[in-house]
Amino acid sequence: MRKSIAIIDDDLITCRLMEAIIKKSGLDVSVKSFNTPKEGINQLEKEEFDYLFLDQNFRDLSGAEVLKLLPESLKNHLKVVVMSSNLTTENKQLLDEYDFVVGLMNKPLTIQKLEHIIK
Question: Binning pLDDT at 50, 70 and 90, where does residue 102 land?
Fold first, then answer.
């Protein structure tokens, strides 16, 4: 069954690179990226995704704050991977706080990291 991935990252280049890596992986997945948490959450409410790759650092929000904004209805099926170029202890606490956070990932995304997450 085809999996779907949403990316929320305010760095357009990161989004495009991740999309290219995901498409190149050969995995049966579709991918869409969004450059603001608001845009991403709005689309997550309209369209069902299996995975969300969420940046930890936005200009005016943290990834943890974005997680709090996710509607309860999404938390039952969405698997979230928090991404950062510098993972911290705070990031690791997200795994304990939120059942739907299934992983933490150091940027950049690689095919090997993707395959490990999408089993």
Answer: very high
